Task: inverse folding
């Protein structure tokens, strides 16, 4: 399984350490995908440096293409690594929602779910 990842810098030269860190974080996100979506999923990461009068800021935008949806998150902070971590957390929560909607048996394992299924069988 090959993961398609594109990491680009806009007004920012991406060094090898930042590229490896972002790729590692994206690889961790693919564990949250359903198995059917892992085959065709791809990721694009845009790292941007924004110059302000009071200091530099770094903006990270991550776009994850999954079979039926495009998941996007964006954040900016004064540290590139911190921005990558924040965007990863945002994408992770969106992926959990996507998996819950895409896989029908997820979120039906509770006590009330069992009760509802047994009640349907009696009708």
Result:
């Amino acid at each position: 399984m090959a993961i398609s990842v594109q990491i680009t810098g806009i007004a920012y030269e991406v060094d090898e350490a930042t590229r490896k860190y972002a790729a590692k974080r994206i690889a961790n996100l693919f564990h949250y995908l359903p198995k059917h979506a892992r085959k065709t999923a791809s990721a694009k990461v845009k790292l941007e440096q924004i110059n302000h009068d009071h200091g530099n800021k770094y903006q990270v935008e991550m776009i994850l293409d999954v079979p039926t949806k495009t998941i996007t998150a964006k954040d900016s902070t004064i540290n590139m690594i911190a921005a990558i971590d924040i965007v990863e957390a945002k994408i992770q929560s969106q992926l959990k929602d996507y998996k819950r909607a895409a896989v029908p048996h997820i979120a039906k394992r509770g006590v009330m779910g069992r009760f509802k299924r047994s009640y349907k069988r009696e009708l």
User: Anything to note?
Assistant: The chain has one domain: 4-122.
